[in-house]
């Protein structure tokens, strides 16, 4: 058990928008012996409302003034721990933050304070690493700790990432409450050093700082007032400048001149207008008088006498998930929300959040659509990166087949980011799809466990992609090298994850590297799952009593032969004239070229062939739609069809089952495994007749449709929820939860 207990204090004032995310990040801290105290200032927003879900898990205190030092002292006074750690209400500590800090305190009994590096709102660049301050309140920032100490500069910490021994804070009287904002922690650090305590900044204790707007600054970090900043800066210098040699008036004038120059800089940069500049100058002049008065009214500062810690007040952290060992996982998916996503991105997003809800540490590497950044999204750290520039990409490793440059740029960038996560956070397990071999550079790397998800790969796709075969250069330079890399990765993964038995059978039959006698990684059967849509309950008795003619048939998928779009359009052309009240909705990319007529598309050809037919008005081509529209389409349909010639799994079938709708799918691949006769129909895909027969039967039997839909939803809830998905993956990792 840890020898030191940590009281984690968050002081908040009108930050209801960012506070819940900070509290959620604290739930993922690894250090167990901790409690959380939230000190709420005189808020005018809904802070108390957003804290309700945490009642009973955190201690909620109140500060009567918008005074950060006063709020910190209230937190310290109520803290029951040996160490008092601080982060801001827009701070996001990484999982090992407290472990790293506490280890330093345990190693040095005279360590009074410790902190770490702070990343800015991008989650990539650093706001601060090592700080040195002087007695004017000026700061210098270093990437590494200076080797030589300077008598005029001392190490300091930043409030968003700082921790102090409670006994040390009691020794100096806590925070000086003259510092309502700014320089409060600098003052504490200086007074600790003067009392003989030591300070450290630790490289691996990182906090991400989101820079939320406040009552003092805009979202662009432009100050709306400088009164508190100026007051603290002038008061600090008056308190800590040795006297003599400087007279108080000279100290005030120097600080005031520096502050007025900062206003001029903001004005010259166009960040404020003339009126705002004048208001800021007025703030500085008013603060000068008030700071000078208080420095002499309180020559020892406004410190406090802290009570001894009350062990009975300790409220241990209670994360909202079951106890047990937690995994540290890296999921890799080049595409990821909010960009348009396919099946791999969809199941990756689902798995990441399902695992995070069980308390596991989950990181995702994805390609950015704009700037490089790291986001904390509902418990998941998402690292959005760019491929390595071509001129910076190293030569391919000699122990494996070479990738095309465009893919090597991505896999190298993935490996570089993953290496940083492993070094800093101990991430040791990577999960990625076989498609695009995104974990290629991590396989066989010391310390990494790579699990490869079997999906429709390049090799499995090749028979369904005549355009690849029609482009010899692309086939030779891109497709075939990737297929060779796929075979290598299959052999050298720690384990393989198969969403269906069929996909593993097909992979074995396709890759000679897995032939007879070859060593094969362990294979785990881990079917996908999807999050529930509570509004998608199956239709009840009204659907069962509906007219046989009243039916909406939904197709979802790309307009390509593998998805069976040719079979769907043939079936519509035959059945639409027979059933005048049946509507056909087709959702998916309908702009792809027809494989036999590359200058047209399936949709264009279909509309041209049947132009003038009255039933064509009941065929609705809707193209690609957003997630919300797709959910509504599943809810509103009566029957779902996707006669794919090959699906390694078939998430579309789960989406229809979740909505309580019967499915007609292709018998090959995942469809044949997922669609048992009581919830759907798996049809042959050599030609249109099996699909037409199945459609005709279900269109004419509404009661059978409704019963199948009800059973389909029950089957989804029992076997294919996102929670079931996460549990299956954890069993493959030999982790229960």
Automatic annotation (TrEMBL):
Q: Which residues form a coiled coil?
A: none
EC class (word):
transferase
Entry's transmembrane regions? none
Task: Please list the residue ranges annotated as the Glycosyltransferase 2-like domain.
Answer: 7-172
Keywords, comma-separated and alphabetical? Glycosyltransferase, Transferase
Please name one Pfam family that this protein belongs to. Glycos_transf_1
Q: Which residues form the Glycosyltransferase subfamily 4-like N-terminal domain?
A: 341-418
Is Transferase set as a keyword in this record?
Answer: yes
Q: Has UniProt tagged this entry with the keyword Glycosyltransferase?
A: yes
Protein name as it appears in the record: Glycogen synthase
Q: Which organism is it from?
A: Tepidimonas aquatica
């Amino acid at each position: 058990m840890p020898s030191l207990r940590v009281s984690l204090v968050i002081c908040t004032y009108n930050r209801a928008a960012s506070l819940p995310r900070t509290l959620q990040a604290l739930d993922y801290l690894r250090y167990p012996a901790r409690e959380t105290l939230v000190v709420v200032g005189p808020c005018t927003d809904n802070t108390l409302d957003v804290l309700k879900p945490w009642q009973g898990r955190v201690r909620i205190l109140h500060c009567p003034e918008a005074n950060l030092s006063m709020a910190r002292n209230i937190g310290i006074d109520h803290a029951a721990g040996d160490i008092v750690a601080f982060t801001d209400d827009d701070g996001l500590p990484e999982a090992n933050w407290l472990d790293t800090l506490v280890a330093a305190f345990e190693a040095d009994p005279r360590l009074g304070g410790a902190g770490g590096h702070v990343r800015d709102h991008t989650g990539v660049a650093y706001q601060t690493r090592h700080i040195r301050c002087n007695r004017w309140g000026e700061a210098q920032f270093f990437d590494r700790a200076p080797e030589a100490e300077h008598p005029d500069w001392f190490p300091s910490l930043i409030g968003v990432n700082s921790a102090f021994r409670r006994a040390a804070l009691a020794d100096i009287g806590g925070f000086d409450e003259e510092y309502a904002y700014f320089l409060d922690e600098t003052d504490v650090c200086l007074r600790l050093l003067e009392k003989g305590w030591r300070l450290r900044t630790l490289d691996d204790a990182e906090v991400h700082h989101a820079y939320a707007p406040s009552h003092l600054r805009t979202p662009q970090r432009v100050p709306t007032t400088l009164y508190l900043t100026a007051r603290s800066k002038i008061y600090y210098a008056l308190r800590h400048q040795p006297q003599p040699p400087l007279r108080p008036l000279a100290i005030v004038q120097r600080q005031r001149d520096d502050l007025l120059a900062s206003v001029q800089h903001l004005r010259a940069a166009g960040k404020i207008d003339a009126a705002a500049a004048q208001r800021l100058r007025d703030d500085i002049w008013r603060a000068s008088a008030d700071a000078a008065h208080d420095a002499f009214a309180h020559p020892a500062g406004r410190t406090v006498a802290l009570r001894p810690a009350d062990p009975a007040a300790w409220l241990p952290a209670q994360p909202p998930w079951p106890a047990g060992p937690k995994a540290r996982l890296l999921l890799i998916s080049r595409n990821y929300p909010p960009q348009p996503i396919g099946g791999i991105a969809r199941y990756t997003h689902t798995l990441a959040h399902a695992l995070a809800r069980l308390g596991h540490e989950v990181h995702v590497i994805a390609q950015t659509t704009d700037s490089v950044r790291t986001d904390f999204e509902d418990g998941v750290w998402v690292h959005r990166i760019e491929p390595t520039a071509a001129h910076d990409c190293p030569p391919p490793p000699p122990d494996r087949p070479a990738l095309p440059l465009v893919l090597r740029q991505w896999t190298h960038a993935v490996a570089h980011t993953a290496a940083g996560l492993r070094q800093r956070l101990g991430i040791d397990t990577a999960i990625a799809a076989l498609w695009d071999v995104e974990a290629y550079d991590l396989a066989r790397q010391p310390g990494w466990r790579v699990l490869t998800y079997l999906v429709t790969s390049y090799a499995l796709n090749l028979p369904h992609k005549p355009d690849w075969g029609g482009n010899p250069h692309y086939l030779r330079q891109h497709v075939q090298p990737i297929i060779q890399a796929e075979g290598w990765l299959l052999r050298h993964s720690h384990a393989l994850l198969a969403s269906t038995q069929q996909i593993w059978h097909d992979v074995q039959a396709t890759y000679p590297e897995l032939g007879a006698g070859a060593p094969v990684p362990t294979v785990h059967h881990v079917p996908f799952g999807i999050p529930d849509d509570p509004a998608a309950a199956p239709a009840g008795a009204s659907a069962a009593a509906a007219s046989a003619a009243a039916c909406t048939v939904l197709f979802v998928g790309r307009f390509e032969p593998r998805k069976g779009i040719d079979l769907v359009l043939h079936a519509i052309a035959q059945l639409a004239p027979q059933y005048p009240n049946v509507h056909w909705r087709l959702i998916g990319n309908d702009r792809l070229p027809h494989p036999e007529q590359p200058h047209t598309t399936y949709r264009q050809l279909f509309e041209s062939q049947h132009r003038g037919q009255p039933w064509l008005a009941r065929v609705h081509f809707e193209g690609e739609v957003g997630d919300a529209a797709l959910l509504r389409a599943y809810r509103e349909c009566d029957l779902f069809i996707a006669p794919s010639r090959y699906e390694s799994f078939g998430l579309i079938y789960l989406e229809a089952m979740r909505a309580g709708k019967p499915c007609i799918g292709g018998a090959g691949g995942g469809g044949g495994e997922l669609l048992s006769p009581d919830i759907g129909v798996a049809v042959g895909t050599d030609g249109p007749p099996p699909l037409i027969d199945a459609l005709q039967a279900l269109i004419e039997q509404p009661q059978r449709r409704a019963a199948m839909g009800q059973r389909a939803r029950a089957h989804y809830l029992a076997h294919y929820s996102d929670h079931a998905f996460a549990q299956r993956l954890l069993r493959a990792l030999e982790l229960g939860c």
